[in-house]
Design a protein that fits this description.
alpha/beta, phosphoprotein, six-stranded parallel β-sheet, NreC/VraR/RcsB-like_REC, DNA-binding, 10 helices, 6 strands, 214 residues, transcription regulation
Length: 214
C-alpha cells in the first residue's frame, strides 16, 4: 500500500514510517502540520492516509478538517484518523454520511502492531475500523432506546460489528460458532430496526454506526 502520514510528533511519525515500511508498505509522503496535508494527498493520491486529529498550527482539529476536505476532492480516499483521546464529535463527523474506508483509532492502538496493521488494511480495502473505546462511548450515549433490549451477548456482537470485524473474527473473539454469531446479528438487527443484510459486512457496519451516531 502507498501511505501518506500526518503526525506532528517526530518520534511517533518516524515510528509509523518504520513500522509501515518494515511491513511491506510504501510511505509516499509525510506531513507535520495541517496545511501540508491536502496538497500532499492530492499530489500522491495514496491508497490510505494516516492522520493525527490535532496538528499545528492550532492543535485543534486540523487533521480531521484536512481529512474531510480531502474526501471531498477524493471521495474514495481511505482515511485512518489517530487521536490521543476519545473525541466523540470528531468520530461522528468523520463517520457521518455513510462514508466507507474510514477509521478512528486511539494512538495507544498503534503500539499494538497487529491490531493497527489490521485496522489500516481494513480501511484501505474500503472497510471501517473504529476504536473499541469510541464504540463504548457512542453506545453509552444512547439511552432509553432499543439498545436496552439487547442481551449482553448481543451487545458484544454489536460492539465488534461497529469496530468493523467480520463474522469469523467475531466468532473467534467470542469463542462461539459463526452460526451463533449469525443468529446474534439477526437478533440485533431485528431489535434495532436495521436492514437485515449480512453480506460482505460493510453495509451492516455502516448501518450500525449510523444508528449509534443518530
Amino acid at each position: 500500500m502507498r501511505v501518506v502520514i500526518a503526525e506532528d510528533n517526530a518520534l511517533l511519525r518516524e515510528g509509523l514510517v518504520l513500522l509501515l515500511t518494515s511491513s511491506g508498505h510504501e510511505v509516499v509522503g509525510v506531513a507535520a502540520t495541517g496545511p501540508e496535508i491536502l496538497p500532499l494527498l492530492l499530489e500522491h493520491r495514496p491508497d490510505v492516509a494516516v492522520l493525527d486529529v490535532r496538528l499545528p498550527p492550532g492543535f485543534r482539529d486540523e487533521g480531521l478538517r484536512a481529512a474531510l476536505a480531502a474526501r471531498e476532492r477524493l471521495p474514495e480516499l481511505p482515511v485512518l484518523v489517530l487521536s490521543q483521546y476519545v473525541e466523540e464529535t470528531y468520530a461522528a463527523e468523520l463517520l457521518g454520511g455513510g462514508a466507507r474506508g474510514v477509521g478512528y483509532l486511539l494512538k495507544d492502538r498503534v503500539g499494538r502492531v497487529d491490531e493497527f496493521l489490521d485496522a489500516l488494511e481494513r480501511v484501505a480495502a474500503g472497510g471501517t475500523a473504529l476504536d473499541p473505546e469510541v464504540v463504548t462511548e457512542l453506545m453509552a450515549r444512547r439511552r432509553d432506546d432499543p439498545l436496552d433490549s439487547l442481551t449482553p451477548r448481543e451487545r458484544e456482537v454489536l460492539e465488534l460489528m461497529a469496530q468493523g470485524h467480520d463474522n469469523g473474527t467475531i466468532a473467534r473473539s467470542m469463542v462461539v460458532t459463526e452460526r451463533a454469531v449469525h443468529k446474534h446479528i439477526g437478533n440485533v438487527f431485528l431489535k434495532l430496526g436495521l436492514p437485515p443484510t449480512d453480506s460482505g459486512g460493510h453495509r451492516r457496519v455502516l448501518a450500525v454506526l449510523a444508528y449509534l451516531n443518530a
